[in-house]
Design brief:
The protein is an alpha+beta fold and about 100 residues long. The chain has a domain of about 60 residues: YefM-like domain (YefM-like fold, 3-Layer(aba) Sandwich). About 35% of the residues lie in helices and about 15% in strands.
Amino acid sequence: MKSRSDKKKNFSPTSKPEFVWQLQSAKARFSELFRLVHDKGPQLITRQGRDTVVVMKLEEYEKLLSRANKPLIDFFRQSPLVGVELDLTRSKDSGRDIEI
């Protein structure tokens, strides 16, 4: 259950967690925060109005670490843009004339 000061947000891997907690609220209601991490996913904690900490399950954290430790070439090989032909030729335009 969220307090009045906590805001609900939609979660996706590229967005903020579903719930946002102020630090004092997270400290006072840590058991609830812990349960929500397990049941609903990552929880964001703010301090002085700034996003500061994300609390998440260990499994999710380990998954993030395993992705971060992959070589850059593997990242590009798994890109949805693999096989797309790019036109990398440069224009022969030399720019414009300006007065100095």
